[in-house]
Amino acid sequence: MSRSKPHEIVERALELSTADGCVVIADEESTANLRWAGNALTTNGVTRGRTLTVIATVDGKEGTASGVVTRSAVTAEDLEPLVRAAEAAARGAAPAEDAQPLVTGVPSSPDFTDGPAETSSAVFADFAPALGEAFARARAGGRELYGFANHELVTSYVGTSTGLRLRHDQPGGTLELNAKSPDRQRSAWAGRATRDFKDVDPLALDADLAVRLGWAERRIELPAGRYETLLPPTAVADLLIYQMWSASARDAVEGRTVFSKPGGGTRLGERLSQLPLTLRSDPAEPGLESAPFVIAHSSGDDVSAFDNGLPVPPTDWIREGQLHRLFTTRHTAELTGLPQAPGFGNLILDAGGEKSLEEMVAATERGLLLTCLWYIREVDPATLLLTGLTRDGVYLVENGQVVGEVNNFRFNESPVDLLSRASEAGRTEKTLPREWSDWFTRAAMPALRIPDFNMSSVSKGV
After folding, report:
1. Pick from 151, 185, 213: which residue ends a domain?
2. 436 CB-side CA count, 13 A
3. d(CA 91, CA 18)
4. 164-176 average pLDDT score
């Protein structure tokens, strides 16, 4: 089976199925990575993997039940037992609340029968020599570089008993780079998301980190409090991704989220920001392309296995400052009476701003400039109050100039509330959300100016 093409595995599993309905998803994954510490490469490697998911549906008098089984490294001998296990799980399950007819009528992918796309160490052909130059320059400048580069390519094949034959290639890469002073008392971070590492310049990142380490040579202690704060794109992405994870239409209708209207209903149509902010997703967004159809390995609060293959259209979640959509499956759309809006594979915040972060700093009389956020946790779902920490550099700006590094803080803020208080948005640019980079990397955000960001306590973190 290891030499079988993924589409052949999908077809064979569908042939073996005796259930009323069947969905088969084959995911072919390859990764390449580099790691470094102290201005020297430490490890590199390439991996390959295959995962097969079988979703069986069984009709009964009280409704349709489903069973899901996922296994890796499936051999020819394992395939039929895998299908039978999914069928047994379906026959032993209660009717699925989200049961819908399996999707039909979606044109087949023309490359469905082609072999999977694969990455290799060649993806770093231009990046690795430039990284070596960055090591040399950092060494000469008295700083040490730590970090990693990871590239992943996942090809997903989706076949159903209703005739769907779909395929999607999803490349994704992340670079995280830390610069530290030799005594480890100063640290600065930069991160990038990329599809192919052709648009990542480690020398430029090192130059920026060198400037930040220079700012940190002067240390200023500040107390907790509310400060005018410039949130860079990475921090905005981390906050708004969490906001979207909390944007289920069903939960809002049932009164469980920040998007629930007091007294019943949702806040759809309500103005969330005085700025003309549009938060949107689009599978065809250049440089942030994502699956144009639903790929659901199981059902959950915000995804339904019955929706596999359902087209994912471009969606405005917030349009010109107003809440426009909450995400739904077909089931929850019927349940709530709201439009279908499948989950999101990328997230873009358009604000119409033209200023770079540097220009926003130059226009700041007194305030804080953050590098990134981490350890973000939810405190109150009703308001979406989040807490977390700043990390790797908080800088004091006075009269348009960075005058030194201040201590880290714990913050308490709701991203929904922040949008209502934001007084300026910069230029939208691709960014890597640091906190959520293991789960979500395709984002483009502007920097935001918050007049009164709540730094609730001082943190001793670096």
Report:
1. 213
2. 24
3. 12
4. 98
- Which residue from 169, 119, 170 is spatially nearest to 149, judged by alpha carbons? 119
Q: Is 390 found in the same domain as 245? A: yes
> What is the dihedral angle through the alpha carbons of 127, 128, 131, 136, rounded to the nearest 10 degrees?
-140
DSSP label at residue 340: P
Q: Is residue 88 part of a domain?
A: yes
From the number of C-beta atoms within 10 Å of its C-beta (0-12, 13-18, 19+), residue 256 rates as middle
Which CATH number belongs to the domain containing residue 191 in this structure? 3.30.2290.10
Which of 222, 209, 143 shows the shortest CA–CA distance to 175?
209
The pLDDT assigned to 3 comes to: 59
pLDDT given for residue 75 in this prediction: 78
Range(s) of the domain holding residue 440: 218-462
Spell out the alpha helix ranges (H) of 277-405.
330-336, 357-362
* Pair (69, 192) in one structural domain: yes
pLDDT digits (tens, 9 = 90+) for 321-359: 999 999 999 999 999 999 999 989 999 999 999 999 999
Give pTM, 2 decimals. 0.96
Mean residue pLDDT of the chain comes to 96
State the average pLDDT over residues 134-149: 97
CB-based contact 433:238 (threshold 8 Å)? yes
Helix ranges restricted to H, 92-232: 127-140, 202-215
Q: What is the mean pLDDT of residues 292-320?
A: 96
Whether 162 is covered by a domain: the verdict is yes
